[in-house]
Structures
1.
Amino acid sequence: MKTRQIPYIVAMAMGINLAAGCSDKFLEVKPIGTNLEANYYRDATEAFNGLIAVYDVLGYQTNYVTKVGAMDAGSDDHLAGGGGPGDVSEFQVFSKYSLAPDQGPQEQLWRKGYSGIFRANTMLAKLPGVPMDENLKKRFVAETKFLRAFYYFDLVRLFRNIPLLTTPVATSDMYNVVQSPPADVYNLIIQDIKDAIAETNLPDQVNITTEGGRVTRGAAHALLGKVYLYQERWAEAAAEFAEVNGATPGQTNAKYGYNLLANYDDLWTRNSNKFNSESVFEVAFSSLSGGGWNCVGCTEGNVLNIMVGPRGYTSLKPDAPQLTSGWSFLVITKSLFDAIHFDPRYKATVLNMDSLKTNNIANYSKGHDDTGWFLNKFAARTTDRTQGPGAPELNYPQNMYEIRLADTYLMEAEALIKSSQGGGAGTRAYQLLNAVRARVGLSPVIATDDNIFNERRLELAGEGHRWFDLVRTGRAATVLGPKGFKAGKHEVLPIPLLELENTKLEQNPEWK
């Protein structure tokens, strides 16, 4: 007999957690659902476990679908790759723009967002009744509101017309959820972030040894700036980013401790440089969870590491890169290769297996969409291969940057230019753009919209920003047209077909 799936919001109302493929991925915390609420949140320890559960969704990667991987696949910088045209079909159809309501990464991205929101809403509903230190409770509330805003921001950018839920969904209402105007969603996002910023118990900095990855006030300002940028509220965006970037671009922000790393390559040194001075908000992964093939979505390791490495990799000479064989996903396009080939960030970004093979330094097996160029930032290294329990392929520890300082520098420069401030020598936009360029030894250029946009491509290549940048700036139809992107349709993803069955949700007009 065929098992009938149920829409994700319905599953949340019933207390069924679908964030992981076969069991919960709660960092060894018991799953929190409506059926367990009566027996949980009894003290500060259980409240902290609930907070961990809200954070944990940041690393969602069920069915091998991550936000970074999906958005890379949809951009002009990557092709889906993999072992064949059906390998991780969510990436394949997004890369070729053959998406359909029942085909694509949208189901996993929707589930990620609403899993995080469900956990956040449960946390916010329960915290008032937990007997614990009130100042600690206020910090937990601030962190949870930031995370709820973060999940909603991803959802509204991807789907536009989404349900706005601020409390756990009652079982009696599970089929009656409706979508809200995007403006209402943005209003909640902004209010949640402002509430987090205003909370005096939210720290400006944290001890990265004991609290690395937790939300800080600087991260909240950065996220609010990004939200304003998407709303084209340029002056407000610039003001928020200025708080993060500090008075003098290129120098340490004394309040939050942010500073560009002196060496760009050090951003990608995996395990030894987590939560560094350039990291504003970072998703943590670990090699210690023992994740196995019986539940790939349950691992706390970074699955993207094994996905993007070259298939069948073999080193032939001692000076060959020390890589493990990967699955050849998200190969780099000729367009990105040509753009970055003579840029100082090229070697950190691109693994040129075509050159290594030609020169008998290393060999690999060509996969689907092969170009010979792979995403070096995330390709798995032998030095990171876990010797602990679980499948080594699923337990790489590299963290992922959601927001880093070079990103906020460039977003502030863009906001300043678009608010009609100049970009010539001596202007703040000029200083911000050229601090990013100076870090890699490039000479200064005038801060124009095109120069900033092109700098974002090279600085942030492969980090999941490119598709969003193309869509929000109106460049997507021109740049992605050769891949099949259609203006007026592909700027948003379809609401997953499963979510529409027996519910009041309506498909996005572009996809009806």
2.
Amino acid sequence: MSAPIRVLYVVGNFVAGGAERHLIELWKRIDRERFEVVIACFRREGAFLAEAEALGWPVRDLAVGRRIYDAGGLAGLARLVHLVCDLRPQVIHGYLFGPNLYAALAGRLAGVPVVAVAKRNVDAFETPRQVMAQRLAHRLATHVTAVSEAVAESVVALGVPRSRITVIPNGVDAARFVPPAPAEEARRALGADASPLVGSVGCLAARKDYGTLLEALHLLAGRGLAFRAALVGDGPDRGTLEAHAAALGLADRVRFLGERDDVDRLLPGMDVFVLSSREEGIPNALLEAMAAGRACVATAVGGTPEVLRDGETGWLVPPGSPGALADALEQALSHPGDARRRGEAACRATREEMSIEAMVRRHQEFYERAVRCRSKGGGSQ
């Protein structure tokens, strides 16, 4: 039997985010006879850290600070290059902005055969410097993995040939939601009363556009609908959003729960799950809500329309439109039978089309194909 392929993943940290959950599920299931995993992180922190360490793969801390362009960032890059030279991986795979850049630079400097970066959204909120850094990272990489066709097109826009891009959609571990947690227990954890509950999970940052969601909830309140809302997640906009909710008169209706690592336990308590994002790749939070059989309302951005079908498995609305979002939420809340039907259809669709096993299999096939091709002196595929 040939030696396993060594894959070095470069990540930022282990916060409770979609990319981090995706990686935990991948590292948990990857074939240990065919692959050897090493994880390099910018900072050894986050709600998923213990779960990552429990998998048994080595976790190396690069000690990169909050800024990647300063002296501390350069020292972290040097540590990564040294680690790559020691490990001699066949594949280095970066995830998210800073780790993508570091993986591309270190992989090329150290001569790693397969230098891959992961593209998970369409980057509508990047600064000009970030766009330039992303373009550099993606052009340096021998391969790019994209979570959707929409994201793949954004990679092409960075100047990467389509032949170097492999689309691997996110997957969801449906087993985490069967049997579902009792709704009563979940509602207690969410702090809900007898009113219908609107829930959302995500980083409280500009790209998720929670401001539009709060405006939509304000419209619902003005229409006399009884509801409560729970926002699960944390981020740089939390203080602003809490103040905005108070200014809209929603302080007694909307709870900000912060970062949680038990989303699978909370989802059954949500009558309607909503994403108001301005951009997405394929949001893991949405896939998990669909797997839990929740009625889902989401904006038609990025790869979301590739997994959520309007009128069948949920409601799709244009981004940045509080009125359209409020209308869809009102339909879901006012017609529980239809909401239940769409939630059940969403549950079936995720189990049949977006399984975690398919995601892992596609990654394994990608690594083996890329290493085989590079060893033969071929191109990206």
3.
Amino acid sequence: MRFIVLAALVVAACSSPATQQQAAPPAQGANLNPPAEMSHGEAPVGVATTKPDRAADAPARTKARHHRIRMTAVAVRHEVSPDVWYDAWTFDSVVPGPVLRATVGDTVEFTLINGANMPHSMDFHAAEIAPNRAYRNVMPKDSVQFTFVPRVPGVFMYHCGTAPVAAHIANGMYGALIIDPAAPRPAAQEFVLVQSEFYMGAGQGKDSLRALDWQKLLGASPDYVTFNGVASRYATHPIEVKAHAPIRLYMVNAGPNRFSAFHVVGAIFDAVFVDAFGSPLRGVQTYNVPVGGGAIFELKLAEPGQYPFVSHAFADATKGAVGVFQAVPAK
């Protein structure tokens, strides 16, 4: 009986009005001042905090049936955020690498030239090919060549597969390859988004050049999460689209660690093609794109205005996985 009475007193004390009225303290270390006027405005919108840079426009579908692609692996300085420079490893000096496009049944003849000071390689997720033959490590000042014929339509990741793979991807060696179906998709405004992460050590030298922090990478704790290699790139430079008109987004998640919970604020996806094979999902609000995966999103924006797009894993959106569509009246 004594135990029951004591328990009752404890419960009563925990539920007293004084306890219930205590407000939780604000989030420690969080900036609670919204950077934009709209909901989910995780970055300043339209503020020129980065230089005019790489457009998200998808390359046009091509009628060529034979594609000769040459890439050079080389290290460059890459600006991840204003005045934050990273010692990146790249394909053709850009992060992500160039967007490629072909059609099911085409012949893709690929050559990788290693202009760096360490081994590199190439892995095309769209290719069905023996890795020990094609995805071989290429030594400095050497090259490798192989050919494949894509069988499955979709949007696919390509990346350096040299060990440790996580380091080569985290340092910038990845990109997107669109494989079109034989019958063209309906006309739309087409864009490519590649999500990826940067894990940075302390700045070195007079210009504070950053390099990979391996322990941060192993702990999956990135400093920046980006679309097309720059934090908040398309918030400071919104992507202009037409309201009411079809939009098609080719989305690849390069990782190397974190999924992309892709979402467009103020819109519902008419269709989501998982790697673009088979019937699409219809009427989707948010869709998870796994690391190393891709998806094609189709939508229309209901009226003119600004529509943020984010990874709905909001720690990642806060670290730069955010952009904006600026919908203008269709003419």
4.
Amino acid sequence: MPAIILCTLNAKYIHASLGLRYLLANMDDLRDQTALREFTIARKPQELVDELLALEPRVIGFGVYIWNVTQTCEVVRLLKEQRPDIKLVLGGPEVSHEVDEQQIVRLADHVITGWGDVSFPKLCRALLHGPKPLMKVIAGEQPPLDQIALPYGEYTDADLAHRLLYVEASRGCPFKCEFCLSSLDKTARAFDPDAFLAELDTLYRRGARNFKFVDRTFNLKIDASVRILQFFLDRLTHDLFVHFEVIPDHLPDRLKDMIAQFPPGVLQFEVGIQSFNVDVQQRISRRQDNDKTVANLRWLVEKSHAHLHTDLIFGLPGETLDSFTAGFDRLFGLKPHEIQLGILKRLRGTPIARHTTEYAMVYDAAPPYTVQQTGAVTRDDMQRFTRLARYWDLVANSGRFGRTLALLMQGPSAFQAFLDFSDWLWQTTGKTSGLTPEDLVDNLFEYLTGERGADAQTTREALLADYLHSGARASPRSLQGLLQQHTATGKTMAKSLTRRQEQHVARPL
């Protein structure tokens, strides 16, 4: 039985904790006494406790994050009730700041703030063999990166076959965006490129084809970026997929030349725009050249095959609904593949808290600490945006309604057009979840033809093309249910969908 268990609760099974694997790889003489156990936040806490106690550990280390702190706190509480002799150690970004205010910290025996690669094994040796640690809260040591054992050998064959593989070529970030914990870093530091690429090559030879880089600034140093891209270019397969987070205004020609060589389906870039409002950018210490950002996004859309996942944040201090609308419209006009609409969260320890009083920021006290209203955005408008973001994922980011979305977003403002639809959909259904693709087809047809006065035939053709292109394979009989919930016009639409699917089912669009 292991003396030490490394544990975390992931949001989904497909996620594999990179942080715990770093700890496992650096346990040195304690490696053989250490086991890794990952669960999901959907599991019942007592079930997890039973599984952990069955291993008879002496120490359990928990990785605590904003998405799992509530569930992990309950697991820790139950463990302390049932086996108070087991030493519980916390680590991770959620418990690295404001530790005195957290219930989970009060329940645990020790907390390591910041890096744990060296500090966790050292604490475990003291807990198992003495001398007894004197401090409950321990500041994690930051060793040189070349003194940290890389974790990639800790990915199992099952991980490679079924889960996302997180990798990092560097740690830290030189930028100071106040909503992000990386703003606390002094700089970005790169792992030895030869050692890192050798580990990637081993993963690749073992069958890994899905790599998600967690570097905050993948394209910060172009020499390193080009070398990593060349590594994957030399190993192209039909199932290779690589995800990077890129700085939007830093895309020199040498990097463009490399990106342009990749075929469709391989590269995905997460591009954090967050806001195009210059005053807001300055207020939150975000350095971003908007003109270069726009030019680079346009190049990526028009000249590369990379899939672009762009991000905007609503609720930043001083950002109004009107200024956000202008930023969304600017980004939408560039035609990225996805626009992720996030809402500001006050992560523990981030400098965004300094604006709370001046800009009347009100945050939810419970994780994930989402902003509820600001001096520039009312609570009602924040709720409207929350619903809109959910509908945007269902209609736009899902990729199921490409042709219909073009009809829906017509008008002087694309954002206002979708906001109008969002308000109508909420008033009509009262739901933000449980809406099937057929429900959405029904509602989109009714809204476009009834509220917007769109041509029924044009709308019908767009919805049918989207429905078939999405991979739907409903039978003609099941299609008779589409759009029959509201209007006689909907019944006509359903019959038309049925006829056209019968015509196209052998050759879907």
